[in-house]
Amino acid sequence: MKKNVLSLLGLFVLGLFAQPSALACTSIMVTKGATKDGSNMITYAADSHVLFGELYFYPAMTYPEGTMLDVIDWDTGKPLGQIPQVAQTYSVVGNMNEHQLAITESTFGGRKECQGQNDGIIDYGSLIYITLQRAKTAREAITIMGELVNTYGYYSSGESFSISDKNEVWYMELIGKGEGEKGAVWVARRVPNGYVAAHANQARIGKFPQDDKENCLYSADVIEFAKNKGWYKGKDKDFDFAEVYAPVDFGGARFCDARVWSIYNRLTDGMDKFTAYAEGKLEKDEATGFTTNKLPLWVKPSKKLSVQDVMELMRDHYEGTPLDMTQDAGAGAFDLPYRWRGLTWEYEGKEYFNERAISTQQTGFSLVAQSRASLPDPIGGILWFGVDDTYSTVYTPMYCGMTEVPETFEVGNGDMLTYSETSAFWIFNTVSNFAYLRYSDMIQDIREKQKELETKFVDYTAMIDKSASEMFEESPEKARAFVTDFSVTTANKMVMDWKKFGQQLIVKYMDGNVKKQTEKGQFERSEYGQCPSPNFPGYSEQWKKQVVEDTEDRLEVKE
């Protein structure tokens, strides 16, 4: 029989979960009633120390009867088995397909008894990309995802999924039934229009309306399975999915839900009452053992959001909160809001930890998937895509109707162990890793350049939308070719511009000094064309104080 290999899943080892609770991903769900332009948006930061950032692409295909699909575990590259291929698949760019359907995830792990079915064929990564090739809407995606894991078994641990199309946004949580069982139990809730939800490696769907099929879907045995296992003995109406299948602990609150708290805190007032929870201080109900001070599932933002506002929500180190990563000694002399792993560490017999923020150095890729019902599907969906650290990446528009991807983001253009001069991932990592050396200064330049480019791209897409829509009425094929050319050309040029920008940063900040510049940003030269003496900005007063306290009078200049 003919085979269709899910090729990109076998090209690299994702390795998100090399240790328990790797705390890998963050996702935000924004409904059209909460956005300025009436679009639905979901986000994704795929964080892993071994994930190479690249843009996956699956062309639309037709298959003869009997074709089989090889399923490869997204984390390890391990072949899991085969399933029958469908007759027709849809094109997919990254985590969005040509019908504006988008799916992202974060892993919550959950009960150990539910993790892993050795004979299961569908892992969470394959579940996303197979579904994107087969579904047109969020509701259809939820149905297909449930059918896939129940028919072929579920290989991964507990997952939260953000699922959006041009009309709806859904939040789904799913966990397997463990060894000796087949399939998974799950709940999916429609995010109310006008609201924003988020998840970050901790299950968050609690009690759910069991008689509202318009806004809540769930597996038939989600409650019965837990009761049969002895994990829940209460009334069906009081069943809490997260508390039963993935109860929160200190790490779930501080390392995971704290990211959600930070997002909500930036969107609306009143989140200060959940600060203790974000700090890992849990309050429990004596009767049920359930945590009582958890975050709300979703919030209504105080103002409507633009796509750039949503991009900015993905850029966060807890600034201005009690968890601010720039304010303790770990930030060093230049306010670096990053801590090299591991996540936890020991000192004099006690265990400590590093904060886990949304923006983190080990991001492979991140995105904002924007779906707009006012435009034809191939034009209405834009995947704003970036690689490396969300705080210093540039989100570049990739129309969901595109038929090829830019060379700079293409699968196979370098990998985690192979540097490529034309790879977006390597170019952005070169800039960000240099910036970590003198972060407080260099990040100002990076953020200015980032804003300049993203603002330009947002302006460009408004014009492309109009031209492509007019073209679509005459010829959908020409419109898709047009948005493809724009997406590819824009991305490739942006990456090369970023490479030049990185070279300018090296010139400016070499050896810990700062070259003098004119008001127009050009480097100053002496009257004879030479480099004048640079500025020596030195260190902050806080750093000087710490050094004096540590060394006492050892470094004091003596008369």
From TrEMBL:
Reactions listed under catalytic activity: an L-aminoacyl-L-amino acid + H2O = 2 an L-alpha-amino acid
Coiled coil region boundaries:
none
The entry's keywords: Dipeptidase, Hydrolase, Protease, Signal
Keyword match Hydrolase: yes
Q: Which InterPro entries would you find in this protein's record? A: Peptidase_C69
Q: Where is the signal peptide?
A: 1-24
| Top-tier EC class | hydrolase
Give the transmembrane region(s). Answer: none
Cite the source lineage: Bacteria, Pseudomonadati, Bacteroidota, Cytophagia, Cytophagales
What domain of life does the UniProt record list for this protein's source?
A: Bacteria
Enumerate the GO terms in the molecular function aspect: cysteine-type exopeptidase activity; dipeptidase activity
Organism annotation:
Sediminitomix flava
Report the Gene3D superfamilies cross-referenced here.
Penicillin V Acylase, Chain A
Name of the protein described by the UniProt record? Dipeptidase
Q: What is its EC number?
A: 3.4.-.-
